[in-house]
Every structure is written in C-alpha cells, then in structure tokens.
Amino acid sequence: MLSRVVLSTTSTVAPSLKNAAFLSPGVLQATRTFHTGQPHLAPVPPLPEYGGKVRYGLIPEEFFQFLYPKTGVTGPYVLGTGLILYALSKEIYVISAETFTAMSLIGIMVYGIKKYGPSVAEFADKLNEQKLAQLEEVKQASIQQIQNAIDMEKSQQALTQKRHYLFVVQREKETVAKCIADLKLLAKKAQAQPVM
Amino acid sequence: MNENLFTPFMVPTFLGLPAVVPIILFPTLLFPTSKHLITNRLIIIQRNLVQLIMKQMMTIHSTKGQTWSLMLMSLIIFIAATNLLGLLPHSFTPTTQLSMNLAMAIPLWAGTVITGLRFKTKNSLAHFLPQGTPTPLIPMLVVIETISLFIQPVALAVRLTANITAGHLLMHLIGSATLALLTASFLATSLTLVLLVLLTILEMAVALIQAYVFTLLVSLYLHDNT
C-alpha cells in the first residue's frame, strides 16, 4: 500500500509517469505462473498492487479480450443479452416481488457509489497520507535533533582546540623561548669564563 | 397469489442442517483486520467509522463504564451489518427472529442492572423513586418503576424485531403490488418510486442500531454513573 501512496504523490508531481504505473500491474498479472517447480515459502512472490480490471463490477476484462478475436466488441454483450432472455423466457429466473426490491436496491447502490465513490476514496487516501506525514515529521525532527547535537559537538571540539592552543602551545612557546634565553646567558657566561 | 408471506422469515435449514449459523457469522468476513500501519481503503474507512462511533458513544462514561466499549462497539457493528445485509434480495436477516434479539437484550440489560446493584446499591435502588413525588403516590410509583425496569429488555428486543420485520414485509408487499400492477400499467412507475423511497428509509435501519445501542447505553449510564 505504501507504493500506492507513493504513486498518488508522483502522479501529481510527474503526470507522464501515471500511465506507466497502470501498465505494470497488468504485466505482473500476466507473468504470474502457477505450479512450476517446488513450492517454497521464502522469498514470498510479489502480490499485484491492484486487482484485475473488471467491467460493470462483475465481469473480468479478460473475458472481453478472450471473445474479441472471434466476435469483436459486441460479442460479450450479445451473449449476455441472450443468456438473460433465455433465463427469463424459460423461467429459470422468475420475476417476483423481490425483483423490484433488487432493482431499487441496486439502483440506489450504483447511484451512491457513482456519486460519492471518488470523494470517499480520496478521504481514505488522505487519512493514510496524514498518518505517513506524521511519522515522517517525527523522523525528520529526530534527524534534525541529532544534526544539531553533532554541530554542537563540533563547536565544543573547536573550543577545546582553541584552549589547547591557548594554554599548552603558548606555554610551550614560552618555555622554549625561556630555554633559548637561558642558553644564551649560559653561553655568554661560558664565553666570559675563559677570559678569566 | 396465495403466497406465504412467512417464507422470508423462516429459519433456513439446508438438508436438515442449520444454515443460520454461517449466516450469523458471515458479517465477520466483511470487516478485515490488518497488521500493517498503512492499509487499504476499506480498512481505513471502517476503522475511521468505528473510531467516530466510539468517540461519540463512550466519552460520556466513567472509566468503569468504558470497560464495556468492546462489547458495545461489536454489538453496533454486528447489528448494522446484519440489517444491511438483510436488504439484499432472497437473504435472511437473523435479527428478525425474536429469539435472537431476546438473547442479545436480556444478558446485556441484566449485566447493567447487576453491576449497578453490586457497586452502587443505594443509588440503583433509588432509581425506583423519582425525585419530588408526593408521599401518597410512593407505593404505586415504586411498582410502576419496577415494571418499567423489567420491561426494558423486552422492549429492546421487540423494538428491533418489529422494526426489521415490518420493513422487510413492507418491501415485499409493495414489490408484489408493483408486480401485480405491471400488467395493468397503472401507477406502476409511481409505486416503484415509492418502493425506492421506502428502501432508502429502510436503510435507516442502521439508525435502529443507533437506537438499540443508545438505549442500552443510556441504561448503562444511568446504572453506573448516577
């Protein structure tokens, strides 16, 4: 599902990628193979992101593709009409009181889904994205905190370096200078001695 | 046209086996759970709805009352799902059977009463006498309040049964009337429209769940908090 959220954000950012996304699940569907070789539990084979495409909510798209080479576009519809009329004329399906109940119920459901479907789906996606955004914010805050700690540590180290320079190195310089001065004095004294 | 109108409400058996048990258990298939953080749209919407209902219903209770949240939430989800699935044609609704509704109402009501009597005996017994009654009326009023207490579970069960059964029956009758008038071509379209409107109103059977759980809730509230 994470990839669906990623896909929805990328479709707003790069519209040219949207078509590519719709091709890949179908390709994945076609390349699914069953019963080849030994069954193994890991690695788990990747499941498709979206289900198979369905027309009129009931009939898979593959059925229309299956009939297309022989009967063209109208084939499945003629078959469907024939089946329905056959069932009605032979009273395999009897029109009763419940037929009207079913008709009104299905009518209301289709109307409701067509009208409110996309907005409800958007709302659900928004909830998901909100959850992700919250966690992302926590992660970013944590990273920022650590970065700040690193910077502070670096500045502290720089301060100690300065101190090191100030106190140790300076003192070394002073002692070396003192040493040189002492040696010069000694040399002068030593020079003065043989004169005596 | 001597149709047996009882047939939608007969408890279904299949080859002598009670098929009603899978029918009662079926709504559990419609509410999936997931161990992932980011789930699909169905689970998100269902979770959101349950959160909404729970916030609406359980915030008025004290801590002790909120221990009932799981029970009440599953109750409302079950009744809502069962009633909505009963709207499909040729389906059986378990909540049309008085036996099942009594089996739901009596234990829950008895639970609230016993909880109230056990932890706040004086308070719950004081419910039998409303405030500010004139003294001569007290004996009669105590009897009346006792009767109203004991009628609560019966009222809960019968309310649910009667509403759902009446709705189903009405839909069936109006459907058959439409069928009969179709040959006469007389007001058939207007009757189908009436059926449509009635169906949407019947989908307010979900509101009945609200009524069911709410009345139960009110009684729990009264017994625990007051």
UniProtKB/TrEMBL annotation, chain A:
<dbReference type="GO" id="GO:0046933">
    <property type="term" value="F:proton-transporting ATP synthase activity, rotational mechanism"/>
</dbReference>
<comment type="subunit">
    <text>F-type ATPases have 2 components, CF(1) - the catalytic core - and CF(0) - the membrane proton channel. CF(1) and CF(0) have multiple subunits.</text>
</comment>
<keyword id="KW-0375">Hydrogen ion transport</keyword>
<dbReference type="InterPro" id="IPR013837">
    <property type="entry name" value="ATP_synth_F0_suB"/>
</dbReference>
<dbReference type="GO" id="GO:0045259">
    <property type="term" value="C:proton-transporting ATP synthase complex"/>
</dbReference>
<dbReference type="Pfam" id="PF05405">
    <property type="entry name" value="Mt_ATP-synt_B"/>
</dbReference>
<keyword id="KW-0406">Ion transport</keyword>
<comment type="subunit">
    <text>Component of the ATP synthase complex composed at least of ATP5F1A/subunit alpha, ATP5F1B/subunit beta, ATP5MC1/subunit c (homooctomer), MT-ATP6/subunit a, MT-ATP8/subunit 8, ATP5ME/subunit e, ATP5MF/subunit f, ATP5MG/subunit g, ATP5MK/subunit k, ATP5MJ/subunit j, ATP5F1C/subunit gamma, ATP5F1D/subunit delta, ATP5F1E/subunit epsilon, ATP5PF/subunit F6, ATP5PB/subunit b, ATP5PD/subunit d, ATP5PO/subunit OSCP.</text>
</comment>
<feature type="coiled-coil region">
    <location>
        <begin position="124"/>
        <end position="152"/>
    </location>
</feature>
<keyword id="KW-0472">Membrane</keyword>
<keyword id="KW-0496">Mitochondrion</keyword>
<comment type="similarity">
    <text>Belongs to the eukaryotic ATPase B chain family.</text>
</comment>
<comment type="function">
    <text>Subunit b, of the mitochondrial membrane ATP synthase complex (F(1)F(0) ATP synthase or Complex V) that produces ATP from ADP in the presence of a proton gradient across the membrane which is generated by electron transport complexes of the respiratory chain. ATP synthase complex consist of a soluble F(1) head domain - the catalytic core - and a membrane F(1) domain - the membrane proton channel. These two domains are linked by a central stalk rotating inside the F(1) region and a stationary peripheral stalk.</text>
</comment>
<keyword id="KW-0999">Mitochondrion inner membrane</keyword>
<dbReference type="InterPro" id="IPR008688">
    <property type="entry name" value="ATP_synth_Bsub_B/MI25"/>
</dbReference>
<keyword id="KW-0138">CF(0)</keyword>
<keyword id="KW-0175">Coiled coil</keyword>
<keyword id="KW-0813">Transport</keyword>
<dbReference type="GO" id="GO:0005743">
    <property type="term" value="C:mitochondrial inner membrane"/>
</dbReference>
<protein>
    <recommendedName>
        <fullName>ATP synthase subunit b</fullName>
    </recommendedName>
</protein>
TrEMBL record, chain B:
<dbReference type="InterPro" id="IPR035908">
    <property type="entry name" value="F0_ATP_A_sf"/>
</dbReference>
<feature type="transmembrane region" description="Helical">
    <location>
        <begin position="67"/>
        <end position="86"/>
    </location>
</feature>
<dbReference type="InterPro" id="IPR023011">
    <property type="entry name" value="ATP_synth_F0_asu_AS"/>
</dbReference>
<dbReference type="Pfam" id="PF00119">
    <property type="entry name" value="ATP-synt_A"/>
</dbReference>
<feature type="transmembrane region" description="Helical">
    <location>
        <begin position="205"/>
        <end position="223"/>
    </location>
</feature>
<keyword id="KW-1133">Transmembrane helix</keyword>
<dbReference type="GO" id="GO:0042776">
    <property type="term" value="P:proton motive force-driven mitochondrial ATP synthesis"/>
</dbReference>
<dbReference type="GO" id="GO:0045259">
    <property type="term" value="C:proton-transporting ATP synthase complex"/>
</dbReference>
<keyword id="KW-0813">Transport</keyword>
<feature type="transmembrane region" description="Helical">
    <location>
        <begin position="170"/>
        <end position="198"/>
    </location>
</feature>
<keyword id="KW-0999">Mitochondrion inner membrane</keyword>
<comment type="subunit">
    <text>Component of the ATP synthase complex composed at least of ATP5F1A/subunit alpha, ATP5F1B/subunit beta, ATP5MC1/subunit c (homooctomer), MT-ATP6/subunit a, MT-ATP8/subunit 8, ATP5ME/subunit e, ATP5MF/subunit f, ATP5MG/subunit g, ATP5MK/subunit k, ATP5MJ/subunit j, ATP5F1C/subunit gamma, ATP5F1D/subunit delta, ATP5F1E/subunit epsilon, ATP5PF/subunit F6, ATP5PB/subunit b, ATP5PD/subunit d, ATP5PO/subunit OSCP.</text>
</comment>
<keyword id="KW-0375">Hydrogen ion transport</keyword>
<keyword id="KW-0138">CF(0)</keyword>
<dbReference type="InterPro" id="IPR000568">
    <property type="entry name" value="ATP_synth_F0_asu"/>
</dbReference>
<feature type="transmembrane region" description="Helical">
    <location>
        <begin position="6"/>
        <end position="31"/>
    </location>
</feature>
<keyword id="KW-0472">Membrane</keyword>
<feature type="transmembrane region" description="Helical">
    <location>
        <begin position="137"/>
        <end position="158"/>
    </location>
</feature>
<keyword id="KW-0406">Ion transport</keyword>
<protein>
    <recommendedName>
        <fullName>ATP synthase subunit a</fullName>
    </recommendedName>
</protein>
<feature type="transmembrane region" description="Helical">
    <location>
        <begin position="98"/>
        <end position="117"/>
    </location>
</feature>
<keyword id="KW-0066">ATP synthesis</keyword>
